[in-house]
Amino acid sequence: MATETGWEEPVLRATDITMRFGGLIALDDVSLEVPAGRIVGLIGPNGAGKTTMFNVLTGLQEPTRGRVDYLGDNISRWPPHRRGRAGIARTFQRLALFSRLSVHDNLVASWESSHPGAVLGRNRAKRIERVAEVMGLLDLWPVADRMAGELSTGKGRMVELGRALCTDPRVLLLDEPGSGLDANETAAFSAVLRAVVSDGGDRHPDVAPPAILMVEHDMALVMDVCSSLTVLDFGRVIARGTPSQVRADANVRAAYLGDASAV
Ligand SMILES: Nc1ncnc2c1ncn2[C@@H]1O[C@H](COP(=O)(O)OP(=O)(O)OP(=O)(O)O)[C@@H](O)[C@H]1O
Ligand SMILES: [Mg+2]
After folding, report:
1. What is the pTM of this model?
2. Which of 48, 143, 233, 249 is in the most buried spot, having the most CB atoms within 10 Å?
3. Which of 220, 245, 221 minimizes the C-alpha distance to 231?
4. Residues with a beta carbon under 5 angstroms from ion ligand 2
């Protein structure tokens, strides 16, 4: 059956994921879907299991139970590098950049490491084109020659997103991309994320646009960009729905007790 976005299968689907660490159940039978062209949010209090879910989706941690499907393939047994090459990109809760490389070179390095043959100089024109496109989309030209380590967190987050985009992802997993951003930077980031998921549709009409799965504590950002949310608490899904449905949900309000203003 076709989905609202017109693409038949979700790009990424996790089914009944359980992850135990000794006696601790970090994820308990969690399922979620990320449709093409959509921004989906994964939220919940500290320790709810969000980063663990990302680790399972990217292959860094093998779940105790459950399966992961990507573009129609069961990728549960694929190692992280194979998932990365196939188009699953992630950013980390803590910034992970080459701090002594320029912004531009950070993007070039990411493109080269994800495109076979690049080191031999083949596809140079494609590299220049894609890196330039991403620099423009994220408004990074003004800081192109700055060392990544000297940037504000806001610009650093943009560079990190840029590095992920240079791998030509079909799905982007962003772990707290809004942390450390001020209000202006957050607004700019929202606009960029929306542009990213509508991007592929214009340039490559035959290819489904990329999808984004985002873990985020900044509710303003989540409410602004996500079309649907899954809420975790102690490893369990306690609510699902549109941002406004989730905000009104009694279980969600209880989970965030003490910080009800957060939702
Ligand atoms: N490698 C591990 N070994 C043991 N326990 C772990 C491991 N990784 C995570 N945990 C535990 O699993 C639970 C979920 O952790 P996780 O990092 O996924 O939460 P989170 O939702 O990302 O939290 P935060 O919002 O603070 O980033 C926590 O209780 C954590 O202590
Ligand atoms: Mg986390």
Report:
1. 0.89
2. 48
3. 245
4. 50-51
